[in-house]
Amino acid sequence: MRIGPALLLLVALASSASAQSSPRDASGYLGQGTIHLEIDDCRQSDPTASNDALRAKGSEHYRRGETLYLQGDYEGAVLEFLSAYCTLPNYQILKNIAQSYERSLNYEMAIGYFEKYVSEIPPDAQPANACSPDPKEDKGIIDRRIAVLKRLQGHVYVESSPPGARITIGNDSGTQANPTSGSVFDLLGGTYTMTVELTGYEPYSQQIEVKIGKPYTYFVKLLPQKGRLAVHVSPPDARIFVGDRLVGLGRYEEVLPAGTYTISAEAPGYVPTTKEVELLPSSVKRELVELEAIPQTGRRQLIIASGIGGAFASGSLLFAFENTGIVGVGTVIGGGVGLAGSYFGLPRDLSLGTSNLTITSGISAAIAGTATASVFTEEDEYVQPIAGASLLLGAGLGYYVGERLNVKPGDAALFNSSILWGTTAGALFAVSFDPPRDVAAGIVLSGLGLGGISGILLTKQFTISRTHALLVDIGGLIGMAGGLAIESLVYPQKTTSEAEAGRNTEHLANYALGGMLVGLIGAAVITRDFDEPKIPIRPTIQTVTGTDGRQTSLYGVGGTW
Q1: Phi then psi for 406, rounded to 5 degrees?
Q2: 69 φ, ψ to 5°?
Q3: Could you tell me the end-to-end alpha-carbon distance of the chain, in angstroms, rounded to an integer?
């Protein structure tokens, strides 16, 4: 910058005090609007001040501006030059302001004041002295300088997380740069739209303003694209977790960033379930989770039954020796062997269905063996061993079938009920007809066989729970008790003669049999919907707006069916 004497400035001010700012070029540059210059906001000088006072004040500001410029305080120099210009405008001061801005690297303002300087040079301007440049030549020099400054580029660095994103920089003229994150690229000064894109992530866009010759750094954290995750769990009161976060009961739906999630579901009485699901961008992932009921173990029950069954089987087998001592010792040893063998031999997770089937099969086989032997002989030394052997054989067969077919507790309970009531019906028929021992044994055996066959057929056609089967059994017992009560009302008088005693027994058996049938059928009908799924009910909260405009919360229950 050329520093002129204050005297020259005063002369210049005096000769051009009447030269006011002419309209500036409003075309702008590099996609930006016209730069606002501080001189556009100059306050009007005191109209009462004389020209000499204005020259003195302007000269003082100008000299301070020169001094600050030489000292390197370009921001202070700008303020003083602006004050000098606003006191008494002169186009030559605009060049000083522009040079001060250029030295402080504020190229936009420097270009603005250089352009203002060029536009304010009068057509007939003459050099202030022999050392001053010709204004016409200086105008061309400054025009070329403006062009050089406008070509200065800003240095831009963009980093993304995750790295490797594609960057597009554009404006109304089109795409100006297309780098990859992590690289430095240059841009002309102006206003641009920056778009950052990476596969699997939401595009990010923002407007950036690049100043001429300035460095810029941007960090963009990209968000994964989102999808909708919908989870339904059975039973409907199961708790749902996404990761370690509890998100709902029975049903959960939310828009989440794409990725892999760990879904867990748990409910009392059910085995907790965990699975990994992958949620893709802009998609809906529906997941149905059916919890399995915790298997009911029958190990303890079968250990006790094994001890009792072992004692009975050992005593029955040794009954053939017709020695009470041997039978007693064998019973104790058999019970101990049964307890120890089952305790150490049975698996920890023995299913309840297998346990129930084993016990029922053993008892049914013992009854069948006893009835079969009674058909051919009345000697207990033969009947008892057959009963004991049948118990062991039936229990072993029931255990094998239960483990092989993975029998459910409900199926085992239904089979047990069929065996129980088939055998009971056979026994009541035998009591009712009072036939010889071999015929009575055959009738009982027939009832047992029919009950077993019915149980197998029923388990193939129906699936019920243990509780359901127990309710039907209770119905049968209540029916039998009711039948016996009715019999006592119909036949209140009991005789002790042998003939009448037989009839009394027949009446009791008949009424008990009839009550049993009515109770079983009635209980089966009443509990027919016991195992049907229930409608899931859950609390709901809604907000409604009344006629007066006030909002009210409504509390209720809701469900899906």
Answers
A1: 50, 55
A2: -65, -45
A3: 88
